[in-house]
Amino acid sequence: MSGPIVVRLPRRISKSRFLSMGAISWVYRITESIVVKYSRDIGAGEIERDNAIYDIFEQYTPCPYVIQSFYRTANANFLPFMLASLDTRLKRNQRREKHKVLQVLRIEERHLIERWAAELCAAVAWIESLGLVHGDLRPPNILFDEQDHLKLTDFDCVARIGDASSGNAPPWARLYPDPLTGKGRWGLYGPKTEQFAIGSLLYCMTRGHEPYGHPDDNPELDVVRLFKEGVFPRVYAESDELDRIINRCWTGYYESIKDLAEVATHLPGAKDMGTATTFSAEYCAQKRNECCQLVREGFLEIDDV
């Protein structure tokens, strides 16, 4: 079987404002309100899977905390522009040297973190209601709109509940010791895998760095082994409600993400989550027409060398 073909970027996209580059795509801002996510590897399959999940999502009433797609082609996805990702926010609040955090300069306001916690849990619970898991809950896949409401994005790793988990790097996934061999295994996708990642995301929000990523932490720590053995960074579950949620997520306390989301709605900051909105069908149709017009005009065409 032939491998993925690395593609050149269409000239008209390359003249737009570059936002980010991920494992599977480039992201460019092409108008005030629209970005395009363009596949870097034709044939790799990730963007096709990402697009297929939007096809599923659009069969249901949209979730205010899951990003909507305006228009999709075989190698591109046109999406609403968002101000920043959680990854960007965290790094903006840190003093860093390459990949190491030297100092946390500030932490976001408590009420905002509580709202984000409730919105994140609601987004993952909505996906759970469709019989699916996100499968890649990490800071780059958490976006924020102009009102600082959370929007979950990037669905190329979505899987069905009960499928074998392909895991993720720590601290977003945890190996579980096999009771017979003692070796680590990822287990099956479901509430346990999703809530573990949610716990680590909430830890990032409340501490300003990843678990075991504090400047004073030993960089030689074997985080994979620590998580496998159930050794987690210290939190104050007895006195702090967010920390209680983090601890319970790490230990797989919640039987479903729906149960977790219900708990998160009682956080004081969650009272503002109801102000988040989805785009109307009319607005989406207008933006879809804009995207279609761009494609008709050759926006995605590769110039001959």
UniProtKB/TrEMBL annotation:
Residues 1-269 form the Protein kinase domain. InterPro entries: Kinase-like_dom_sf (IPR011009), Prot_kinase_dom (IPR000719), TF_kinase-domain_protein (IPR053083). This is Protein kinase domain-containing protein. PANTHER family: SI:DKEY-192D15.2-RELATED, TYROSINE-PROTEIN KINASE C03B1.5-RELATED. One of its GO terms (molecular function) is protein kinase activity. It comes from Thermothelomyces thermophilus (strain ATCC 42464 / BCRC 31852 / DSM 1799).
